[in-house]
Amino acid sequence: MNKEYEPDWDQPAMPSHMTATEPKATPPGAKQIVTIRLDVDMLEWFKAAGPGYQTRINQVLREHMDAQRAGELDAE
Question: What's this model's pTM, rounded to 2 decimal places?
């Protein structure tokens, strides 16, 4: 990696003359673009079901998240 472009993790995210503001509420259903590496065969399987594969991947991840959260609640 080029040294010029390496982030300096020890520095604050905002310049000292700027103050942090109250975080904005995320509207329900808001999406964020991300890059994720998936196994080729798994991605092909989702794509083979037709358009909307990203939505299906999101749904599978959401179901897993919900199940994990429910398990955490049951453990308490």
Answer: 0.61
- Could you give the residue ranges of the DSSP H alpha helices within the chain? 40-48, 53-75
Dig out the tokens for 70 from the structure.
Answer: 């429910």
Rg for the chain (alpha carbons), in Å? 19
CB within 8 Å of 38: residues ≥ 6 apart: 57
Angle at 34 between CA 63 and CA 6, to 5 degrees: 135
pLDDT per position as a tens digit, 31-58? 999 999 999 999 999 999 999 999 999 9
- Tokens 């604050």 locate to 12
Question: Given this model, what pLDDT does residue 29 score?
Answer: 82
b (16+ CB within 10 A) / e for 38-61: eeeeeeeebeeeeeeeeeebeeee
